[in-house]
Description:
single chain; 289 residues; 8-stranded mixed β-sheet; globular
Amino acid sequence: MTSGADWSARVGATWAAEWQRTERAFADVAEVLDSAIASVAPDSGRAADVGCGVGSTALALAAARPGLFVSGIDLAAPLVAIARERTAVLAPHTGGGAEGDRRVDFLVGDAAALLPTLAPLDLIVSRHGVMFFDDPVTSFAAMARAARSGAPLVFSCFRTRGENDWATALDAAAGVSPRSTGAYAPGPFGLADHALTQDVLAAAGWRGATATRHDLRYVVGAGDDPAGDALAFFRRIGPAASVLAAAAPEERAAIERRIVAALAPRIRDGAVAFTAAIWIWVAHAGEPS
């Protein structure tokens, strides 16, 4: 289980250190999500990217809609620091230039606390950043209250663990057998269940929620030694990382050999690729109660 508190501490720091590999892994997810966002995004107003990470979704939205002011929000200060650095580099492409002209900014903190300061929002988006709420109904309700009536919410999240072969392959290599209780638990697969997520959104004040399935390429290793690159990634990111960190040296070496063996059949054209099975959700804020 990965909670919001983890992102403000060790998990956020780890993802900041691995941000270039994680961005590579999520490249196809980003393409599909950005397209879905573009299909409903207004031309002007204010938008928020919840769980913005290093800012890729916010920056893409700001570039596609120069009339929008986009605020990225994340609990992890190291990730926000990278997002701000990238904004400075990409400013000419995001409506930027002089500091006062920038159309994108990044904030460190809890979305539920920060969103009211940005209201009313014309759009809320997230790339895999909304599965870690301790209380998802409360958090999604905070988003709905910060949104104008009818404003769209667009986010991506993983489907079930069993549909994501990058996760099942690592589970097998690490010798773990995660079991779902059917109840919500914060983590990568927290919103995997379609019915649960639909109920959460409805209870939180979002209307007309629809989800589309996508099965996308998930590149975890490349370069001269793609298997070694993927192993380095999985040592820090994904379900095997905590198992490897806790294992004694001999067991750790055995797990890593099993991971490398699982990676070998996945090497194509100089890259190790799995499948990311995801949902793209779209909903709209209802009338304030």
